[in-house]
Structure formats: C-alpha cells, structure tokens
Amino acid sequence: GDARVRGQTGVVSERRGSYPFIDFRLLNNTTLSGEIGTKKKVKRLLSFQRYFHASRLLRGIVPQASLYLLDEDYLGQARHMLSKVGMWDFDIFLFDRLTNGNSLVTLLCHLFNVHGLIHHFQLDMVTLHRFFVMVQEDYHSQNPYHNAVHAADVTQAMHCYLREPKLANFLTPSDIMLGLLAAAAHDVDHPGVNQPFLIKTKHHLASLYQNVSVLENHHWRSTIGMLRESRLLAHLPKELTQDIEQQLGSLILATDINRQNEFLIRLKSHLDNQDLRLEDAQDRHFMLQIALKCADICNPCRVWDLSKQWSERVCEEFYRQGDLEQKFELEISPLCNQQKDTIPSIQIGFMTYIVEPLFERWAQFTGNTPLSENMLNHLRRNKAKWRSLLHKQHSSSRSNDHSGQVTGSQEQTLNEEETP
Fold first, then answer.
1. 394 is catalytic
2. Is residue 175 a known part of a binding site?
3. Out of 60, 133, 189, 271, which could bridge 66 as a Cys pair, Cβ 3.0 to 4.6 Å?
4. Contact 25, 64 (CB under 8 A)
5. Whole-prediction pTM value?
6. Is 138 in contact with 189 (CB distance < 8 Å)?
7. Is 347 annotated as a binding residue?
8. Residue 148 in contact with residue 319, Cβ under 8 Å?
9. Which molecular function GO terms apply here (predicted)?
10. HSE of 252 in the Cβ direction (CA atoms, 13 Å)?
C-alpha cells in the first residue's frame, strides 16, 4: 500500500473549494464511520480515488446497465469489425455505435481472448467483464475527447503495435496484458481539464501528487483501486500482482506529455547506439512505454476522416476549459482560447513538435514496417490538409479586413504557424 495515500483522510473528504463547476462531490468524513472496522474496508481505503472520488454510486450517478441492448444485425456487424481489429483504418466511432457505447468493454474482451490472456492467467470471465465495465464507466462520457471511446481507440492502436514483428517476437503474456490494460485505463476518470488548470484551482489531486504528473498519477491509482476492488488478479501470487501494479504505473505515467523529451532522448540514444536488447525485461518495458505514448497521440496518423474528428473533439475540450477560465477570471491556458487558437494551427503545431519526432523514431525502431510507413504517410497528408485549411482561414480574414491588409498580429501568427 501507499502510506501517503493511506494517511491523507483530509484529502479524502474532497472540498469543493471556490470552483464548483467541476464535478467534485462533497463527501463528509462521516462517510467513514462504521466502515473502518473490517479488514476489507481498510483495504478499499488504500485506493480512495476509486472508492471516494471515481465511484459512480458515491457521485450520485447510477451505473449504466452493461447489457448489450442490440439486435443481431448490429452485433453481427460489430463481430465482423472485430475480425479486422488489427487494421489501421479501424473505425472506432462506428464500432462504438454498433456496440451501443460499449466499445471499450467489447474490444477488451475480444483482445484478451485472441491474445490468450484469459487462459494464461486463468482469469474468471465474469470478474474480467465486471472489471472492464468499471473501467469504461469511470470515463466521463461528457468529455468530448478524454472518454471511453478515446480509451478504446488507444487500446486498438496498442494492439496493432504489439503485433509489430520487432516487438511481438519478444513479448511475454505479462507484457501484452500490461500493454492492453495500460492503454485501456491510461486516462480513466479524466476531468476534462489539464494539469495546469488543476494546479491553479488548487484541486486536491494537485496537492496530493505535489503538482507532478497529477492526472497520470490519478489515472494509475484509480486503476489500481479498480483492480483491487474487482479482485481480478486476487488468485495470482502477491509478488506478481504488486509487480503488475507498479509496471502499470510506469506505463501510465509515461503518457505525461511533459516527459516527452525525456523519452525521445532516451529512445534516440538506444537507436543510435543499437543497444536495445528486447530479451531484457527492462528494455521491453521501455518499448512498451514508447508504444503506449504512440498509441495515445496517434490520431494525426489515422485516415483523415477519423483524424479530423479527433482533432475537433480535443480542441472542443480545450475550448471548454478556456471558457471556464474566462468565466472565473483565470488566465486562459495555451491552446484554449477559441478566438485565437484555431483547430488547424493547434494541429499543425502538435504534429510538428510532438507527433512527428516520436513516430519517426518509432518507424526507425520497427524497421519501417508497412504500418509505420502508413502512419507517417497519413501524418504528412493530414498536416498538408490542415495547412491548406489554415491558409484558407487567413485568406478569408484578409478579405474581411476592411483595410485590405493583414494585421501585425495575424502576420506574426501566420509566420509562426508556417514555420516547419
């Protein structure tokens, strides 16, 4: 257990503070009365994010029924799609509709089966399904981007990466299970705002994790809470479950975008020195971290129709945060000002400085496989489309300028955005 988590009962009671617009429920300390007496209840306190914060019941939200209320036609189409789950043009939005919003649960059940994980780890199917439902329901469907569909999309991408020969030839069942679980749960209980927002609003999670990888730590701890509550791995040796919990944390924490350069520098060093030894568990784990980082930001590498939808969704989430910051007279965060930060400009910057460097190194690692080439081709085409849309926006703003001149700020923005 985590002594720091165990002792922070003051944090458990989650004050609302002066920012009532986030879904932080006031939980009175009397919630604890009469519940500390049993060993089981004490264990549940060790993962308080799940029990006190993420729990749908304690937040007053009735869990949705996990039954698939679909006719055979829809189920048949969903099954047909799963037969092509390893294809890069897999349409997760369509799959989510066909499964009545259960894309993450359905996908995980299928992948755990095809990878032989259920048999290898002797997992109980009912318990496994219950755990997957817990994970899916702890995503916030009202988030335009950080929701269960994003988790399903990342999981499908992770499945594709785990099949790359350079990696697949060395992976153990534990590696595969960790990769899929981390992908599925990497953003669980995401509040729809970023870390700087939590810090400047003095949210309890920022205090708990001392302003370091706040969201990622919360996603990890919430996942551990659900694993323990479900007892999915209770039949495995304690040492193994502890190792799984720690490795899950290492994977999920790697998705912190603030650590991007740290991982890129280390990956470049390994590739330049050709010293990756995938027989070594430590090197395999590092490449699983890289694979998860790729899966998390692979939207610009998808076919245009899918990529564009994700771009619009993530920017909508940014803009919602900006609107909240404006409403409460906080400084508007970068990329969150709808009046200044356009979708094309946000996407071009994201592709240029974050996505391209990572995926070029990933292609170098895989040996430029068809999948890696396909992703890079989509990335370049999508970037060109966003550049074209940006140019049209600026042309339109010029024509609407009564003086017929581009303003100084427009010209500066255009120069910055067109810089490769």
1. no
2. no
3. 133
4. no
5. 0.81
6. yes
7. yes
8. no
9. 3',5'-cyclic-AMP phosphodiesterase activity; metal ion binding
10. 30
- Report how far residue 180's alpha carbon sits from residue 104's, in angstroms, rounded to the nearest whole number: 11
Q: Supply 82's token pair.
A: 């799963």
In this predicted structure, what is the pLDDT of residue 71?
58
Torsions phi, psi for 368 (to 5 deg):
50, 55
| Dihedral over alpha carbons 224, 226, 227, 229 (to 10 degrees) | 120
- H-assigned helices in 335-369: 343-350, 356-366
Q: Class assignment of domain 75-394?
A: mainly alpha
Cβ density class 133-155: b for 16+ within 10 Å, e for less? bbbbbbbbeebbbbbbbbbbbbb
Return the biggest CA–CA distance within the chain.
75
**44 pLDDT exceeds 50?**
no
The band of 14, judged by pLDDT with boundaries at 50, 70 and 90, is very low
Dihedrals phi, psi of 23, to nearest 5 degrees = -80, 65
267: CB partners within 8 A, 6+ apart: 286, 290, 361, 365
CA 366 to chain centre: 23
H helical segments located in 32-139: 39-45, 48, 72-82, 92-98, 103-114, 117-120, 125-137
Coil/strand/helix, residue 117: helix
pLDDT at 20 over 90: no
CA 408, CA 21: separation in Å to the nearest integer? Answer: 37
**Does the annotation place 159 within a ligand binding site?**
no
Which one from 53, 115, 140, 146 is the annotated catalytic residue? 146
Residue-averaged pLDDT of the chain: 84
Q: Which residue has the tokens 């070029």?
A: 360
Q: What is the DSSP string of 385-407?
A: HHHHHHHHHHHHHHHH-TTSS--
Ordered by start, the domain boundaries in the chain are 75-394
Distances (CA, A) of 115 to 108, 174, 322: 10, 11, 42
